[in-house]
Design goal:
Elements (H helix, E strand, L loop, with lengths): L10 H4 L9 E11 L5 E6 L2 E3 L3 E5 L6 H8 L7 E6 L2 E3 L3 H4 L3 E4 L11 H10 L9 H11 L15 H12 L6 E5 L7 H16 L3 E6 L2 H7 L2 E6 L2 E7 H6 L4 E5 L3 H10 L6 E2 L3 E4 L6 H10 L6 E5 L3 H9 L8
Parallel strand pairs: 4-9, 4-10, 7-8, 8-9
Antiparallel strand pairs: 1-2, 1-3, 1-5, 5-6, 10-11, 12-14, 12-15, 13-14
Helix pairs in contact: 4-5, 6-7
Bound molecules: adenosine-5'-triphosphate.
Adenosine-5'-triphosphate (ATP) binds next to helix 2.
Length: 331
């Protein structure tokens, strides 16, 4: 007999607003995973994912994203700490919670010899709660949702990687979901495939589904997400609305000039730090002084200034400011 928690693991609970922390879809407290070999993959994680957000879970390879997702989905037990998904404790409430969650983790498991449509029919048939009488309609709607109607009759092995990812998303969307969890959904895709998945994620989110997606690509998070958490070496560095995270960091002073060498020399004389010379100019840490004076010094020294100003900080600037390291985008 399955043990029931005092908090209740009734499937109906996950579908109502009686979730303990209303408005929060994922909440972890001091969530920690140490693997048997001693590797501390996730270290005291406090994550708060607001309902309705597109939440980017950002970190370099090996920073603990997949391990966290596996704990959230009840696939592995935390060493310590707690995780709640849709207000329910995981992994205890896995069976009650997962029907409300669409997940795409480590690429979809597809049968190459079956068509896209037949793959979805199989998926749907494997769901004991899915009514067989409405199966074809459900599958057609999911295919339409991800733009695969025209290719529905093709064998899945003939699909591009992007189409396979979209088919995996269609499988996750056969039932209405309150939460979508996507582990590196654009990994390995070409730019066109990436654009397709990103616009699909935005569309899904506009219907009110909370989307939690992991990525090691900063610009992807900036383009798609409303909120983000940044991980490094198993620890949470920061989390919050993307606009606020980037605003917390200082931007860069950017001087556009055909004389970058001279510009750099003058700026250095003026005490400006962290100079980076490029073909089109110089960037630097913005100094705490009147910028007009700096511009005047450049012009007085004969530097031809085409552009001068402080660029808005990116999430990358925030990451560098918080960790003191560059963001490793390898992989
Ligand atoms: N089953 C395991 N046994 C031992 N160590 C593991 C295991 N799974 C992951 N790790 C280690 O835990 C750390 C975090 O890995 P994890 O896969 O969670 O990172 P990630 O941010 O998802 O990176 P990636 O994008 O490369 O998957 C890594 O150092 C990894 O080697």
């Amino acid at each position: 007999m399955e043990e029931r928690s005092a908090e209740g693991t009734d499937p109906s609970v996950a579908g109502t607003a009686s979730a303990s922390a209303e408005g929060t879809v994922i909440a972890t407290r001091a969530l920690t995973k140490r693997f048997r070999g001693g590797q501390l993959a996730v270290d005291g994680l406090d994550l708060t994912v607001p309902a309705g957000s597109v939440f980017g879970f950002l970190g370099p390879n090996g920073s603990g994203k997949t391990t966290t997702i596996r704990m959230l989905m009840g696939l592995i037990e935390p060493t310590s700490g707690t995780a709640r998904v849709l207000g329910q404790p995981m992994p205890r409430a896995t069976r009650a919670v997962l029907p409300h969650v669409g997940a795409l983790i480590e690429g979809p498991a597809l049968y190459g010899f079956l068509s896209g449509r037949d793959n979805l029919l199989r998926y749907d048939a494997a769901d004991p709660t899915a009514d067989p009488r409405t199966r074809r309609t459900r599958v057609a709607a999911a295919l339409d949702r991800v733009g695969l109607t025209a290719a529905a009759g093709k064998k899945a092995k003939a699909y591009s990687l992007g189409m396979k990812q979209r088919l995996g998303l269609a499988a996750a969307l056969l039932q209405p979901r309150r939460l979508l969890v996507l582990d590196e959904p654009t990994n390995g895709l070409d730019p066109q495939g990436m654009r397709e998945i990103r616009s699909l994620v935005r569309e899904l989110a506009s219907d009110g589904t909370t989307v939690f997606l992991s990525s090691h690509l900063l610009d992807e998070i900036e383009q798609v997400c409303t909120h983000a958490a940044v991980m490094a070496q198993g620890r949470l560095i920061t989390q919050g609305p993307v606009a606020e995270l980037a605003a917390g960091a200082r931007g860069r002073l950017v001087v556009t000039t055909p004389d970058p060498g001279d510009a750099a020399r003058v700026l250095k004389e003026q005490g400006v730090a962290d100079l980076v010379v490029t073909e089109t100019g110089v960037s630097a840490e913005p100094p705490d002084r009147e910028l007009a004076e700096l511009n005047a010094a450049l012009v007085t020294a004969g530097v031809r200034v085409r552009g001068f100003g402080v660029e808005r900080a990116s999430l990358e600037d925030a990451f560098v400011a918080l960790t003191g390291e560059g963001f490793d985008v390898a992989g």
